[in-house]
Amino acid sequence: MGKTENIIRQGNYPPKLGDILVVSRGMYYHYGVYVGNNKVIHYASKNGDFGDAICVHETTLSRFLRGGRCLICTFSGTYRKPDLGTKVFSMIEHPNLFTVMDSVSAFMVELSSSSFHLYSGKETADRARSRIGEGKYNLFFNNCEHFAIWCKTGIAESVQVSSIVSLLAAIPAKTKGGGL
Q: What are the domain boundaries of the chain?
């Protein structure tokens, strides 16, 4: 499932300390870090995923799930770096805002990949706690998935955002002869 080769599986209850929890919200997946005692730390508004005052905070597992099924993101012990050659070639061949953004994103992941590490459950929970109160949410660069994946691996990445950017980059640019 993306550059970190994550696999989402149905969770066994209770989740383990430091597990990355995922719940489907229909149009997107919401991520959080299980910190024990039926508590989850995630990047969201206190009244839902979006809204006013989005920040990293602790909530109950049931409030995080909101009736959804708990999935647990597992990580392989290896990291497959993104294919920068293909992305840069695509940017040169069909330059547009989205291919440039995708290439820059891949480059940043490449630069940060040397810090990839699978933290233990306790370390992951501690990393999540260290950011409680942070209010620097950004849908494209610092969302709930970036936060949770960073807590586990040290790399802030969002497969959902990368997938959307890749889809948008595949849309042909408007041509002089009509096009889109």
A: 7-169
